[in-house]
Amino acid sequence: MLQRTRLGILSKHFRPLTTSSSLMNLDSAPPSRDQRLVFAPDRYQYTKDSLNLSQVDPESPFKTFHTWFSHAKESSEVTSPDAVVLSTAELPSGRVSSRYVLLKQLDSKGFVIFSNFETSKKGRHLATNPRASLTFWWEPLQRQVRVEGIAVRLTAEESQEYYDTRPRGSRIGAWASPQSSTIENRDVLDQRVKDAETKFGGQEKIPVPPFWGGLRIVPEEVEFWQGRNNRLHDRLVYRRTVPLESVDQASTEGPGEFIIERLAP
Ligand SMILES: Cc1cc2nc3c(=O)[nH]c(=O)nc-3n(C[C@H](O)[C@H](O)[C@H](O)COP(=O)(O)O)c2cc1C
Question: One short Pfam family name for this protein (predicted)?
Fold first, then answer.
């Protein structure tokens, strides 16, 4: 049976997955050539660089990340080195959601981003499950970095310190926008901005909203991926010798040390 959606008619082979076992039950007949909306045979090779143990810090994924991030920032071809996909998963539904955010800080504990944590989907997901991942893709360098770990809110003081560096309009915007809530129209947002401006009128120092701030992803593992010829990529992953179990553990520098392993592409 064909399924009708807002975007049109999906192939009769499309079936939403409801359980993991559904993965095994897809129709065996593949879609015919003219039913495929995208069909992209391999065209390009990754040939820019390689990655081996002598090129990474033996202990710290943060130091290796810093080196790679510097390369991305120095490259005139990488337009947004700090743009990164943050993925979260709600429990108990298991629904996963990803969105771009900006990396704003790296320290010896983890990778810090800033956002709304009350109304946004990421905030709602993280309230049920603190595990999150970050994925960077620096296409001109043919490099990917994957971070998996536990997300911990920065303290209000730490968030305030970053918030104070933002342009006034962005600080007002954080107060005004109920991020990811449905709003009637643009006027509603404009009015909320006016209200926030009135509230903080003439005030240079604005307090960071209690529902907004920094989130540090404390890694359990960090993978460095360098594209190679024939899809035989180089992958080195730092893994903790002791797994991260809880937000409490992630609030420190985390347990154990990191060991490095090579993964098959
Ligand atoms: C390149 C890029 C960078 C972004 N950076 C941020 C950010 O740092 N913080 C943020 O809250 N949203 C950022 N956004 C918007 C998010 O992608 C997203 O729309 C918003 O956070 C709401 O997502 P959620 O409801 O799934 O949590 C960015 C979007 C793009 C395209």
Answer: PNP_phzG_C
Sequence spans of domains, the chain: 46-163+212-265, 165-204
Class of 46-163+212-265 in CATH: mainly beta
Pocket test residue of 82, 90, 98, 102 for ligand 1, highest count of atoms within 8 A of CB: 102
Ligand 1 centroid to residue 122 C-alpha, Å: 9
- The alpha carbon of 99 and the centre of ligand 1 are apart by a number of angstroms equal to 6
Q: Which atom of ligand 1 is nearest to the CA of 123?
A: 27
Q: What is the pLDDT along the chain (265 residues), one digit of tens a residue?
A: 344 444 444 444 444 455 555 566 666 788 888 888 888 877 789 999 999 999 999 999 999 999 999 999 999 999 999 999 999 999 999 999 999 999 999 999 999 999 999 999 999 999 999 999 999 999 999 999 999 999 999 999 999 999 999 999 999 999 999 999 999 999 999 999 999 999 999 898 999 999 999 999 999 999 999 999 999 999 999 999 998 988 887 777 788 899 999 999 9
